[in-house]
Design a protein that fits this description.
heterodimer; A: 654 residues; Rossmann fold; four-stranded antiparallel beta sheet; B: mainly alpha; ABC transporter involved in vitamin B12 uptake, BtuC
Chain lengths: 654, 285
């Protein structure tokens, strides 16, 4: 309460500004949302029509009466079934899976062997196809395991190694696979037994896979994958579990690849290990990169182009693999964005110049009001942390001075080699207050932040949240505890839109499971709507709403700082850690930032502000700690610290 | 059987170790793991067979010509696939660019040389049975390369400059070392090592275009197990891998030996991600 009145007396202009906006805000904001969702629907249509055109043209193809092209189109559809899943692994999650032909081989052999009855009694082809899908899911996960812990190159190698041994097994296990002689592929039952029937079956499945992968790509799962690819640290801090998410994607991609394999065997009518060359793997992989990362249309076009290209001329067929490799090299060196970037005309339109960041406190009420919290939390699935949060919020509202509430560090020590970066630090962040942390370079400010967010494990001392121990390390669990942060160098996904970047922060609020998202069930839609709304609110709060649809890498540095704050706000954090948010900002922007931070704390969020701008610190902080060489030099209210002799001589000057 | 296991195990192990050292030599100056390492081993065999059987050069001349050919490939790798993407090392573009180049090398070989394995002539005509030159040649080549590298790194100024660049690129450049030229030379040197591996193992693995992919994987396993950039790890890991693989080969059969190697690779990496001889690196936040 005292905070509020202080704010009102100190900032009359800001309050009337915000109040005015809030007053008009009911109508203004909802009007804004309406246009935003209308705009969204337009956007949907613009994105969907190329797919409709491609699939409609494909469906008309058999009418041309040329069986040869129907077979080629069937092959393209089968490749796309595999590539659409692989696209999530390669294009979205950025994992370099270069040996996916192995899963195609696996699916082809499982389907053929089961349908032929070499091991078990003969199965109906569709049942065999389902079994192949299950096998593909299992092996997709096994091959993916190295990606969960190791660097990119290892995963590439693991998939390459897997591709090599699957072919060897197919060659050597003669009783079952027929060895080098091979075995017949499964014959599909009527009406899929003709060339045209098989084509429509494959085309139908290709459309289905497009829909499924698009559902994933546009959900919090898809955004999480891109976050893992481009901003792994920020993804972790937002509570996105790399292990869990990648495992799901590997299973899904494995299922699709193996199903594609079964259809491939049916199309070939007879399979030998020779049919599954490593070059096929290269085709899948390169189709995605030529298409462009983080796009679905691009890889679809890439798959079609690479499948059709060798059919156009005989020399092209002989040198096709060389051409694929050359294309890959050219794409990497000259156009890393691929086809998708070439087609993205909108991102080439200039953003308005002279744009200004104008934060608006009104949406914060909606975003951070503790009553509206029911529709949010839950995806965490961790009751203990929910309790902890409710406790925090309760105490934030009722009793700010309760000493147990908030994050507290006690005698924390952390050394790197011989240097003690933090040397016996004691610090408390109280809900609803802004706590400033200043000190010269190397005094341990950012290290303190990293200890709280779990990147560093202190050697001594305790870390508590609302009285309960906060486990050291484990940055992944911080978001579940309601702790959000920003970084000295903004951790942004440049290729995603501003709005998507902000939505990353609210990943934990989603409740729909992977399967619900895959099938676009109601809970997924509810998640998506509320998260989009929250992200839009957060953008409005920090003053970036006008740029919601722009690609994040087109923003100015100062805008990225506010973008990171918006991403943190979507979590509805109980604690917000800001690492030099004012660095590189103009004077007016720093003033706006100060007001924004004040408003955020007024909603009960405890803020830890690491800064070099002493003016900002003394202007907005309730409490200031001065560090020097990892120790507390001074601690108290801004007024007390300003009077502190050592601080004045060592840091403030004069 | 034990004799066969040891003879072929050490021979294959030496080849894997040499390819591992090829990876490491390129990695040291550029932080790039290049897919061309295995292709260089393949080229060593194919070019050797080409120069001796098709062109008719004497072995020593064919050896030099093979190394020159590989050196050119190393040079091209640095210029085309490594230098342009070094700035964006974090995005792993080098994986794609070197993969693309490796595939191009393999495809040209497949089209111009053929997709069937072709014979590689005997060089010295010494030994038979388990003491056949096809078994001891790779081991001798490996020993000579390791000793040569030790001499280079410890006794020569150029070698020490290599080490300095490998240790700290920026500091080395600040000291005025010609970092870029050293990197080019390290790629040439690595290519020569890969060529030696292929030439020495020509009789064992034949001149076959698909050896490249095989060596890419089996040469990488010792590097991964021994720790990136660690030549001693690659040597021990390579020999151990060869013995393990051949032991499995002779006892349970070829298929299961591939599976065993693959499983070993995954399990060790999941247990010790930085490799058995490597050191953990701190994360940057």
């Amino acid at each position: 309460m005292s905070v509020d009145s202080e704010l009102q007396t100190r900032r009359p202009i800001a309050m009337t500004g915000a109040g005015g906006a809030a007053g008009a805000g009911g109508a203004g904001a909802s009007g804004g949302q309406a246009t935003h969702s209308g705009h969204h629907r337009n956007e949907d249509w613009r994105k969907v029509w190329p797919f409709l055109a491609i699939f409609a043209l494909a469906a008309l193809l058999p009418l041309a009466g040329n069986n040869y092209w129907t077979v080629i189109a069937t092959r393209a559809a089968i490749y796309w079934i595999l590539v659409s899943g692989l696209n999530l692994v390669v294009g979205y999650a950025g994992q370099l899976a270069i040996g996916y032909v192995a899963l195609l081989t696996l699916g082809a052999y499982i389907t053929s062997v089961l349908a032929a009855g070499n091991v078990l009694p003969p199965m109906p082809p569709f049942l065999a196809l389902i079994c192949a899908g299950i096998g593909g899911g299992v092996f997709g996960l096994v091959v993916g395991l190295p990606a969960l812990r190791l660097r990119t190159f290892y995963f590439a190698m693991a998939t390459l190694g897997f591709a090599t041994i699957v072919t060897q097994i197919a060659l050597a296990w003669q009783d079952v696979t027929g060895g080098g002689i091979g075995l017949s592929g499964p014959a599909m039952p009527a009406p899929f037994d003709s060339e045209m029937g098989l084509f429509y079956l494959c085309l139908g499945l290709a459309v289905l896979c497009t829909l499924l992968t698009a559902n994933i790509a546009r959900s919090r799962y898809g955004r999480g994958l891109i976050a893992i690819r481009d901003a792994e640290v920020a993804a972790e801090a937002s509570g996105i579990s790399k292990v869990r998410l990648l495992s799901l994607i590997f299973i899904f991609a494995g299922v699709l690849a193996a199903v594609a394999g079964g259809l491939f065997a049916s199309l070939q009518t007879y399979i030998t290990p020779d049919a599954f060359t490593f070059e096929l793997s290269v085709l899948f992989f390169i189709a995605i990169l030529i298409g462009g990362r983080g796009s679905i249309l691009g890889p679809l076009l890439g798959t079609i182009i690479l499948t059709v290209l060798p059919e156009l001329a005989a020399p092209l067929a002989a040198w096709s693999n060389f051409l694929y490799a050359l294309m890959l090299l050219v794409i990497v060196l000259a156009a890393p964005g691929g086809i998708a970037a070439l087609l993205d005309f909108r991102s080439r339109r200039p953003l308005p110049a002279n744009r200004r960041i104008i934060p608006d406190a009104a949406p914060l009420d909606r975003l951070l009001s503790r009553n509206g919290k029911e529709h949010g939390r839950g995806g965490v699935g961790d009751d203990a942390s929910n309790d902890a949060r409710n406790h925090t919020n309760g105490s934030a509202r009722n009793n700010v001075s309760n000493s147990a509430a908030g994050i507290s560090l006690h005698d924390v020590v952390l050394g790197f080699g011989g240097v003690r970066a933090i040397d016996g630090l004691t610090l408390a962040i109280t809900p609803g207050q802004v706590h400033g942390l200043i000190g010269p370079n190397g005094s341990g400010k950012t290290t303190t932040l990293n200890v709280i967010s779990g990147y560093y494990r202190p050697q001594e001392g305790t870390l508590r949240l609302d009285g309960a121990p906060l486990p050291a390390g484990q940055p992944l669990l911080r978001a579940a505890h309601g702790i959000a942060r920003t970084y000295q160098t903004p951790r942004i996904i440049g290729e995603a839109s501003v709005l998507d970047n902000v939505m990353i922060g609210g990943t934990l609020h989603g409740q729909a499971s992977f399967v619900e998202t895959l099938l676009r069930l109601p809970r997924h839609k509810r998640d998506d709507t509320s998260l989009r709304q929250a992200a839009y609110d957060a953008l409005q709060a920090v003053g970036l709403a006008a740029l919601a649809d722009a690609r994040a890498d087109r923003l100015q540095h100062s805008e990225l700082r506010f973008l990171e704050i918006a991403r943190a706000l979507v979590l509805r954090p109980a604690f917000l850690l800001l690492d030099e948010p004012a660095a590189g900002l103009a004077a007016e922007e720093i003033r706006q930032l100060g007001e924004l931070i004040r408003h955020i704390s007024r909603h009960g969020t405890g803020v830890l502000l690491v800064e070099h701008h002493a003016d900002l610190i003394f202007d907005i902080c309730d409490h200031v700690t001065v560090l020097n060489l990892g120790r507390v030099l001074a601690d108290g209210t801004p007024a007390q610290v300003r009077e502190h002799k050592e601080v004045v001589s060592a840091y403030l000057g004069g | 059987m034990l004799g066969s296991i040891i003879a072929s195990g050490l021979a294959m192990g030496a080849v894997y170790a040499l390819i591992g050292i090829t990876y490491n030599t390129m990695f040291a100056t550029s932080r790039v793991m290049s897919f061309t390492a295995g292709q260089l081993g393949m080229l060593g065999g194919v070019l050797g067979s080409l120069f001796m059987l098709k062109v008719g050069l004497p072995p020593w001349l064919a050896f030099i010509a093979t190394l020159l050919g590989c050196a050119v490939v190393g040079l091209v790798t640095e210029l085309v696939a490594v230098r342009p993407v070094l700035k964006s090392l974090d995005q792993h573009l080098y994986v794609l660019s070197t993969l693309a180049l490796a595939l191009m090398i393999q495809q040209v070989t497949a089209i111009e040389w053929g997709t069937e394995p072709q014979p590689f002539p005997r060089l010295f005509n010494v030994g038979s049975g388990l003491m056949d030159e096809k078994f001891w040649l790779p081991v001798v080549a490996c020993a000579l390369v390791v000793l040569g590298l030790e001499y280079l790194y410890r006794r020569t100024l150029v070698g020490m400059a290599f080490l300095a660049v490998a240790e700290d690129n920026f500091a080395a450049r600040a000291l005025g070392l010609p970092e870029r030229r050293l990197r080019v030379w390290s790629y040439v040197l690595a290519a020569a090592i890969g060529g030696i591996a292929g030439f020495a193992s020509g009789q064992l693995m034949l001149a076959f275009f698909a050896n490249g992919t095989l060596l890419n994987f089996y040469g990488f396993v010792p590097v991964a197990l021994g720790g990136l950039g660690n030549n001693r790890g690659a040597l021990i890991g390579g020999l151990a891998l060869g013995l393990f693989q051949q032991a499995a080969n002779f006892t349970v059969g070829g298929v299961f030996s591939s599976i065993a190697v693959f499983v070993l690779f995954i399990v060790v990496l999941l247990a010790v991600p930085q490799g058995l001889f490597g050191s953990a690196t701190a994360r940057r936040v």
